[in-house]
Amino acid sequence: MQNTLTQSTPPPIHTGQWVLRQLIWLSMLWSFATAHAQQAFSFVALGDLPYGSAQKAYGPYRSLIDRINQETPAFSVHVGDFKSGSTLCSDEEFAYQLDHFQRFTGAVVYTPGDNEWTDCHRANNGAYDPLERLTALRQRFFTPGQSLGAKPMTVQNQSTVSSAFGRYVENVRWMHQGVLFATLHIVGSNNNLENRDIAANREFFERDAANVAWITSSFEQARALQATAVVFAFQADVLENKTLWEDFPGWSGFKSIGNTLLPMAHQWGKPVLVVHGDSHQFRIDQPFQIDKKPVRNVTRLIVPGASDVRAVKVTVKNASFSFEMLSPLR
Question: What is the pTM of this model?
Answer without folding.
Answer: 0.88
